[in-house]
C-alpha cells in the first residue's frame, strides 16, 4: 500500500486543492460575518464624533424620495402628538387633583411600561411599520407617561430628527447617517430602540461626502476606460514603440527572447485551449448521428479538432525549446500570482466592474452554486489526470499479486473511477477440495 | 501677426513645464512615486536617485502587498526581488542585473526599466484596477481563477518519501467535505445578500443600482469604518485623476526618454528586433528531450555573449521545461484519442453506405465549409493571443424586479444557462476519464484467474 517518490506530487496536488478550498471558505466566512451582523439589530454607535455630514438642519431640506415620510407616517405622528399632549394635560390635572391618584397611576404606568418596554423592540418595530390601529394611542400614552415632562422641550414634529437609538432624554443628539422619523417614537419611549435592517433599512441614506466621492469615482473610471481608444493616444503609442525598439537594440542579447512571464501566459492559454478542445471532442463523441450527413460532419469535426491539437502541440514544443535554450527560470515563485495577470490574457477594456442583474434570491443561489460546481469539476478533472498519471503505472508495475496488491487495486479503482466514494468488491473463488 | 509672436513667446515656458508636470502626474498615480527632480537626477545617474527608484519598482512589481508592507523588506531584499521580477518579465538589458545589491547605484538603469514597464502595458491603470476600492458585492462570472490548481506544485512539501494510499483516500474525502461546506456557506451568503439588497431598495443615490451593497450598508452601521472607506476612496480618486493627467501628457515623457537611452554599442547586424515575441533563435536538429529535467550545465549553452561573461546570476536549476511536461502529455493524450476516434469513424464511413455519387462532392464541400465555420471561434480561441469572447472579470450584483426594463448589464438567467452547459460538458469529460481508467484497470487485472470483481452499483 505504500507509494514511493511520485507520492510527493500527489500529496502536494491534493494539499493545494485543500488549501484553495480553505482560502475560499475563509473569504466566505468573512463576508458571512459582516452580512449576519448587518441583519441583526445594530448596536448603537460608541463614538459620537461629528461626521462630515450635514447637520440636522439641512436634513429637512432635502430628504430623498425614500426618506420622505409617507402620509401614513405623518398621520401616525399626528396621532401620537395628540396623545402625548393629552397625556400632559391629564398628568397636570392629576397632580392638581392630589397625590393619591398620581402614585397609583404612576405605578400603573411604571408597571406597564417595563412590560411594554421588554417587548418594545419587536412591538415598536412592528408598530412602526404597521398601519395605525386603535390600540396604538393608548399604548403610546402608557409608554410615554414616564418621560412626559421632557416632551414639551423636544421638537417632536421635526422631520428627520436625528434622535438615535439608545439615547437618554435630554442627551445631545448624535449625528449619524440615519434619518428615521419612527425613531422619534422610540426616543420618546426611552427604550433602547434597536435598528433592524429589515424594518427600517428602506430609510437609510448614504452620507453626502460618500455619495460625491463614489460618483466621482465611477466617473473617473469611465473616463479612464474611454481614453484607451482616443486618437491622441496614437502619437504616444508610436513613441512607446520607438522607445522599446531602442531598448532592444541596446540590450545585450540578439533578437528577442521570450520572457518567463510570456511563456507562462502562453502555457496557460494552451491549457485552456486543451480543455476547450477536450470539451468539444466529448460533445462530438457522445452525439448520436442520425443520418450519414451528420456522421460525416462528425468525422470532419473530429479531423479539424485533431489538426488544431496538432498546432497547439507544435507551439508547445517551440515553447519548451525556448525555455531550455534560454534557460528561463526559475519559474516565478512556483505558483503564479493570479492577480498580476488579467483575465483571458488581454487587458480589460473596462477597468471597473460592470453589473450582473438578478431578480430573486433563488436565482442568485443557483448562479453561485453552479459557479462552485464548475470550479469543483475543473479541480476534479485536474486531480483525475494527476492521479491517473501516477497511480496507473503503480498498479501495472507491482508484480506480487497477493492481497496487498488486490487492496491497492481496489483503492486505486475507487479513487480513479468512483471519485473515492464507492468501492468494488473482490471475491476469490476457492477451488473445491479434491 | 502679434498673436503668433505672442504664442511663440509662451511656448518655450510651456514646453519647459510640460515634462515636470507629466512626471508629477505619473508619480502621483504610481505608489511611492518620486518627485520630478529625482527623475532628472536619475537621468544623470546621480546616486541619490537610486534608492527612490528601487523602492518605486519594488512597489510596482509586487502589487499584491498591502500599502506599507514594503517597509518590512530590507533594501537588499527589495533590490533582489526587483531584479528577479524584471528578469522574469524579460527585461532586455543586462546592465540591470549587474547593479550592486545595496541599492546605491543605478538611477538611470532603473529609470529605463520603469519606462520599459510603462511602454509595454497600461501599468498605472492595471495597478489601480488591482487595488480598487470595492464598493459593491462582486461575483466573478468567468472561471479563470478556477484554473488555479494546474501549475507547478509548491515545493514546500515535507519530504515524506512514502505515503500510504489510504492517506490519499483520506485527503480526497476531506476535500469532498470542504466542498460541501463551501456550497452550504455560499448558499447562506447568497440568501443574506438577497435580504440586504431587498431591505435597502431605493436607498442608493444611483438609480441604476437601486439598493445598497454590503460595503455601503456597513459604512452606515459603522461610521468609523465608513470614514476610512471614504478616505481610501478619495485617495483612489486622486490617483485616478493623476492617471488621466498622465495619459494626456505622456508624449513629452517618451520624447525625453529617448534621450535617456544610451547610445547603442552593439554591431548593427543585430538590429531589427521583432516585438511579437516570436522565437528568432532556433538551432536546427535540436532534440531537447522533453522528459529529462535540464540542469544548468546542459549542452545547450545558448547565447555566445553570455558565455563570454562571468555568470552574474546564481545558476538556479530550472524546472521550467519540466513544468510544461504535464501539458505536453495531456495534449499528446488528446491527440491520441482524436486519432483513434477519427480512424474508427473513417473506417466505418468507408465501409458504410454513404459517400458515393456525383452529388456527393458538392455535399462534401458544403459540409466542410459548415464545419469550418462551426469551429472558427474555437480555432481562434486556441491560436496565439486568441480568446473566446466570454464575459470576464468581477461583476457587481444588482437586484432588480423581475419585470424591470432591460438596463445595461449581464442578466443572471443567461449566465446560469452558460454555466449549466459548461457543467454538462465538464461532466462528460470527467465521465470519459473515469471510463478510461476503468478500462485500463480492467485490462491490468483481467488476466488474473480465480477472482471475481464486483463493481459498485451504478448511480
UniProtKB/TrEMBL annotation, chain A:
UniProt lists compositionally biased (Low complexity) regions at 41-50, 61-71, 111-132
Query: Record's InterPro entries?
Result: DUF4693 (IPR031518)
Residue segments, region Disordered = 40-74, 94-148
Cellular component per GO?
A: centriole; cilium
Task: Give the residue spans that cross the bilayer.
Answer: none
Database matches in Pfam families: DUF4693
Gene Ontology annotations of biological process type: positive regulation of smoothened signaling pathway
Q: What is this protein called?
A: Tubulin epsilon and delta complex 2
Q: Which organism is it from?
A: Balaenoptera musculus (Blue whale)
- Supply the gene name: TEDC2
Automatic annotation (TrEMBL), chain B:
Q: Where is the Tubulin epsilon and delta complex protein domain?
A: 90-260
Question: Mind telling me what this protein is named?
Answer: Tubulin epsilon and delta complex protein 1 isoform X1
The organism named in the record is Balaenoptera musculus
Q: Which gene encodes it?
A: TEDC1
